[in-house]
Design brief:
Number of helices: 18
CATH topology of the largest domain: Dipeptide-binding Protein, domain 1
Number of domains: 2
Number of strands: 20
CATH architecture of the largest domain: Alpha-Beta Complex
Strand content: 15-25%
CATH class of the largest domain: Alpha Beta
């Protein structure tokens, strides 16, 4: 998810009587856990993780034991108990995973490794410097910078130990769905509007039935969640300024923009908006056209609240948009005529007009006055705090979905500073769409579908009747049902039994079951998901000893993971590996293990 992040699955330590030690207790005991001892005494290493990663944990354990370590696994049953162990500091290594759901390398490293990152355990000025430097560079220039960053993270400091890069796979019931209409994107959540039945008569009669593991939805306000519970749902409920292709190219296709342009200097970004999308609402269990156009005013409102961490309580995505300095409506056509695109002589106006049937003759700040057929358009300019080309990828993320300024302001009348979760009901709260006495669907969807209702078992969506009607992007299927099936084996069984039509996330160990089923098709592609070991950087001996971390690092043999998964994994060096070809590679080396262990014992 990422995604959005596919939870940091930090791993393993069997806990006495299920108790969680306090931070102070860990700090007083931790240094004794990693025992140097004499040359004959093995160094003790504690690995933290969840039961879902037990296979990987066992491989890590065996590799470390083979290289002379005494390994203790702390395997927790779920993310909650794992997180408690992590926060208490009860580990030396944690099995972690990350998926870059925006398709850009900055997302792959900023939150994880920058000293002020939301999920970072690393505090290194050089790492911060390299992340910031790469973020200002274009793809042609940043490869060498990211290569240096990887070397700092892995070879020089051993903050992480990479394991593998996963594939992405989904099973499709090809007897029901036309597989050619089902996309499997590297980063973007699955797009429902393209999917179609083999029998077109089913479009209005039957729902598309798919699944996801998590049924407790973080928020249907796109800026308040970035996890597996809502990434796909909000992606399909809110249109964005741009989208990602299946191989992570930024395009206007299927977005609110006809075209976009990056101006010279890489700090100003212009978006030419279309006027054929209205917000949908829910009335009597059906989607209705509100008559309110999705326009530049809503874009400016949505992006300015996305970048402001204080715009809503528990804002979970502001760090993705902190590089936005300002979003504004452009009304002076001469500005577009004077500005040129980055790295070229073409004007921004010419770039925005590319492929248009009617060229720009006027720019308006009132969305109700835009008439594209007569040459009257709206243009939004996004200015970044510094040159930051990767802002486009963040604008393709679900958290940059466009909400209705009027509707959100009418719902969010509470004071953010004194927000009471038990009393205040914010826009997008799942309680408003959950079946029961509290149902009061307040959603306004700018995207192809809108959520009608949910319960503990499923969520029901219907198409937005005012989304690109008559175009290739109008949703093919009228209704979508998302079943909440936590266990992957149960989800696969539901697919094979015809209870669901699409299972996104088929495990590598189950590929053969899908491939052997005559009713099913396995779609598989590369993904941006990387699994790695995160070192504890505070309060443990491993936190203080670079030599000890490197001894562990060079114990990791990635070939053994690839063999276990029958080639359905790829080698990785960091969370950047699926995105930037740096040429870096981790090679297991017992001689280096011994050298670093010896150096550690002499410290």
């Amino acid at each position: 998810m990422g995604k959005k992040l596919l939870s940091l699955t930090l791993l393993l330590v069997l806990v006495l009587a299920g108790c969680v030690q306090t931070k102070s207790e860990v700090e007083s005991e931790g240094k004794g856990t990693d025992t140097k001892g004499g040359p004959e005494e093995k160094v003790k290493i504690e690995v933290l993780g969840m039961g879902s990663g037990e296979e990987d944990l066992n491989i890590v354990r065996d590799q470390l034991i083979k290289n002379g370590f005494d390994v203790k696994l702390n395997i927790q049953p779920d993310y909650g108990t794992f997180k408690a162990q992590q926060e208490a500091g009860n580990y030396d290594l944690a099995l972690s995973s990350w998926t870059t759901v925006t398709g850009n390398p900055d997302y792959a490293v900023r939150a994880l490794f920058k000293s002020d990152g939301a999920n970072s355990l690393v505090d290194d000025e050089k790492v911060d410097e390299l992340i910031d430097q790469a973020s200002t560079e274009t793809a042609e220039d940043y490869t060498n910078t990211y290569k240096q960053l990887e070397q700092r993270l892995v070879a020089e400091k051993a903050y992480i130990a990479p394991l593998y890069n996963s594939f992405k796979a989904q099973g499709v019931n090809k007897k029901v769905l036309n597989p050619d209409t089902v996309r499997l994107a590297k980063s973007r959540a699955i797009a429902w509007e393209t999917i179609d039945f083999n029998d077109a008569a089913k479009r209005t009669a039957d729902p598309l039935v798919t699944q996801q593991a998590i049924g407790d939805l973080t928020s249907l306000d796109p800026i308040k969640g970035n996890d597996g519970s809502i990434n796909t749902l909000n992606t399909n409920m809110y249109v964005r300024l741009v989208n990602l292709t299946d191989d992570d190219k930024v395009v206007p296709d299927g977005s609110l923009s006809y075209n976009y342009a990056m101006a010279e200097g890489n700090s100003d970004y212009y978006f030419l908006l279309r006027n054929d999308i209205n917000f949908a609402a829910v009335s009597d269990g059906k989607a209705v056209d509100t008559g309110e156009r999705v326009g530049a005013e809503d874009v400016v409102f949505s992006l300015n609240r996305a970048k402001d961490k204080d715009s809503v309580p528990d804002h979970r995505t502001y760090s993705l948009h902190e590089h936005i300095k300002n979003a504004e409506i452009v009304t002076d056509l001469s500005e577009l005529e004077k500005a040129t695109v980055s790295g070229g002589d073409e004007t921004v106006q010419a770039a925005l007009e590319n492929g248009l049937d009617t060229k720009l003759s006027a720019l308006v700040d009132d969305k109700t006055k835009a008439d594209n057929s007569q040459g009257s358009y709206q243009v939004v300019k996004v200015t970044t705090t510094e040159p930051f080309p990767q802002v486009l990828n963040y604008l393709a993320h679900q958290s940059a979905g466009i909400v209705s300024e009027k509707q959100v302001k009418s719902i969010n009348t509470y004071d953010v500073a004194t927000f009471d979760v038990d009393k205040d009901i914010p826009y997008g709260d799942q309680r408003t769409v959950t079946e029961g006495a509290g149902y009061n669907n307040q959603l306004y969807a700018s995207g192809p579908y809108i959520l009608v209702k949910k319960n503990d078992y499923q969520a029901d969506f219907v198409k937005n009747p005012a989304y690109r009607a008559g175009s290739e992007f109008e949703p093919k299927i009228s209704a979508v049902t998302v079943r909440f099936i936590e266990d992957s084996d149960s989800a696969l069984s539901a697919l094979r039994n015809g209870e669901i039509h699409l299972f996104n996330g088929v495990p590598e160990t189950k590929y053969d079951l899908v491939e052997k089923d005559d009713n099913l098709l396995l779609q598989k592609s590369d993904s941006n998901a990387v699994t790695y070991l995160q070192f504890n950087t505070a309060g443990r001996t491993v936190s203080d000893s670079e030599n000890l971390r490197k001894a562990i690092l060079f114990s990791i043999n990635q070939d053994e993971f690839l063999n276990y998964y029958h080639g359905n994994k790829k080698k990785a060096y960091s969370t950047l590996s699926p995105l930037v070809d740096t040429g870096n590679e981790l090679i297991a080396d017992q001689n280096q293990v011994n050298e670093f262990l010896e150096a550690y014992r002499k410290e």
